[in-house]
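Dear colleague,

Following up on Tuesday's group meeting, I ran the structure prediction for the two-component complex that the binding team flagged. I've pasted the input sequences exactly as they went in, so you can double-check that nothing got truncated or mislabelled along the way. The structure tokens for the whole assembly follow below. Feel free to forward this to whoever is handling the docking comparison.

Inputs:
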Amino acid sequence: MPLNVPIVENILSANDRLAEENHSRIEAAGVFSINLMASPGAGKTSLIEKTLPRLTDKFRVAVVDGDIATSLDADRAAAAGAQASIQINTGGECHLDAVMLHGALNQLDLKQFDLLIVENVGNLVCPADFRLGTHKSVLIASIPEGDDKPYKYPGMYRGVDALVINKIDLLPYIPFKMDFFQRGVEALNQGVITFPVSCSTGEGLDAWIDWLIQNIKR
Amino acid sequence: MPLNVPIVENILSANDRLAEENHSRIEAAGVFSINLMASPGAGKTSLIEKTLPRLTDKFRVAVVDGDIATSLDADRAAAAGAQASIQINTGGECHLDAVMLHGALNQLDLKQFDLLIVENVGNLVCPADFRLGTHKSVLIASIPEGDDKPYKYPGMYRGVDALVINKIDLLPYIPFKMDFFQRGVEALNQGVITFPVSCSTGEGLDAWIDWLIQNIKR
């Protein structure tokens, strides 16, 4: 199906133009924004749940949740203290794109917020191809996924600005070679800032929260 | 981008026609075939590694491995005893389609085999939309992914013929409500045959192997 190729390129280029527009709006409102990506079940919503209570006394946070179905994630973000929580049901699409985020931004008075967290659809492939216009892309890896994921999903690991390694509390029960994992990460994304954490025990979350706060205040 | 919709429909319909052709070839050769799907790291390759040594003394098994990059999985399948192991590098595509499997089948003398295992790309969304022409679709869920996955990825859970629940050895360390998970599965796919297993400890694998053998002999 070679016809598919130029069409996909046109869509990506249209997406990039709208991502620029999203970025300008977010930037003009003085909001720091992240695009949170991961496999299903790596802990995107859990990380949001652990992050919000440590920020919302000082900062106003909006969460935009992309999901194929249900509003479970947006409900969890709201319960964790997000001042605004918007659900995007992608209707089967396997990623968020700039059009969807544009629609969500229309529902927010951006000036009211300090931090915008966009939770992408659980997928280690497609979200990497669609810029949204956020300031930083953050990937959550998860110990039970295995140590070979940078090698197998290079597009995702190559493009991100920060890497959270979640579920480190499970390291004693799983054969995960951190050296092998880190070598794969370094080959694709040298020097990327990395936060090993456990959303269950809270270990490692301080450094992640500090990074967010530094970026909010910048 | 409404232009996208009819194009996607045409691609899916072309895919279905070729899936029919794949199915006829596989069926004519007397091979039982499965399309193995899951999130990244749920255990597709591990299940293949545990399955092959228990079959290859009696049956001849071919494995077709779909991956975005690397041939790590095909190498592992070959090491585990697959009589043939073919790697499809999808070149960035997030799923296998009938065209890719068609190309792989051209490299196999199907009559030489009893079982064909197709390992799809790690993704809980897109593979559900692309029939390959195999006899059965098998989804591997994984305990650390969390108990909400049927609710959040209904398309995948709805369409499969069998469900393997892997990493049950991690149940003591993870808050996973099996009742909640199973209710979600039942709502989408009533009575689907389910195999709780641990590829680490071997627990539950007998029933899975028996199911495969029954289907091979049918």
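The mean pLDDT of chain B is 93.

Cheers,
M.
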